[in-house]
């Protein structure tokens, strides 16, 4: 795979390029190596597995979790709790030196959540200071599944959403075959 698109949120390109140059080089290496291990069909599970192996081989922490203790404080008085989620958590795919990475070959809502909520939650928990979101460019997304989120979609949304005071530096990378 190759990087074919770069979108920066809150100076993500500059921050990551200067503070996380080593990690960025490793990410670029993993992206470049995915071709050698991916399936012929661009199956999302095979692609995700290839990224998992690449990051793990380089010693990145994977599946970093934050435990969720859901509150019942916001239920209405006439609602009685029957059960609560057991072992609920939020998970960052990869972390190295306070840089979080999410790889997304799924549907739209996941990547928006990754950038606009999950990365901020992990920052607030003191686990990351910046993030990278890896997505398929539209031409690759079309070969994975018709509903696959593309780099172009998330860049458009983020551009039109604007920056919030709680956002952290994020670099969105669009990849292609």
Walk me through the topology.
Elements: E1 2-9, H1 12-19, H2 21-37, H3 44-57, E2 61-67, E3 89-96, E4 99-104, H4 108-124, E5 130-136, H5 138-144, H6 151-161, E6 170-176
Parallel strand pairs: 4-5, 5-6
Antiparallel strand pairs: 1-6, 2-3, 3-4
Task: Describe the 3D structure.
The protein is 42% helix and 24% strand. It is of the alpha/beta class. A six-stranded mixed sheet has the order 1-6-5-4-3-2, sandwiched between helices. It starts with a strand and ends with a strand.
Number of helices: 6
What is the CATH class designation?
Alpha Beta
Classify the oligomer: single chain
Share of β-strand residues: 15-25%
Rg from C-alpha positions?
17 Å
> Are there runs of 5+ residues with pLDDT below 50, and where?
none
Mean pLDDT rating: 89
Along the chain, the helix and strand elements come as: EHHHEEEHEHHE
**Biggest β-sheet description:** 6 strands, mixed
The name of the CATH architecture is 3-Layer(aba) Sandwich
**Total tally of structural domains:** 1
Number of strands: 6
Summarize the structure.
This protein is α/β, with parallel strands linked by helices and 177 residues long. It has helices at residues 12-19, 21-37, 44-57, 108-124, 138-144, 151-161, and strands at residues 2-9, 61-67, 89-96, 99-104, 130-136, 170-176.
Could you list some keywords that capture this structure?
single chain, 177 residues, alpha/beta, Restriction Endonuclease, globular
């Amino acid at each position: 795979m190759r990087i074919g698109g770069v979108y920066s949120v809150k100076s993500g390109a500059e921050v990551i390029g200067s503070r996380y140059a080593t990690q960025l080089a490793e990410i670029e290496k993993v992206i470049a190596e995915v071709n050698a291990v991916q399936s012929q069909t661009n199956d999302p599970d095979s692609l995700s597995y290839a990224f998992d192996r690449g990051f793990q081989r380089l010693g990145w922490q994977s599946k970093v979790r934050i435990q969720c203790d859901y509150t019942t404080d916001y239920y209405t008085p006439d609602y009685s709790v029957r059960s609560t989620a057991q072992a609920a958590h939020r998970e960052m795919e990869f972390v190295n030196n306070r840089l979080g990475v999410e790889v997304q070959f799924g549907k739209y809502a996941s990547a928006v959540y990754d950038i606009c909520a999950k990365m901020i939650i992990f920052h607030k928990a003191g686990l990351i200071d910046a993030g990278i979101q890896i997505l398929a460019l539209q031409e690759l997304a079309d070969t994975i599944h018709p509903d696959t989120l593309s780099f172009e979609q998330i860049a458009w949304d983020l551009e039109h959403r604007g920056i919030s005071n709680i956002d952290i530096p994020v670099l969105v990378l669009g990849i292609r075959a």
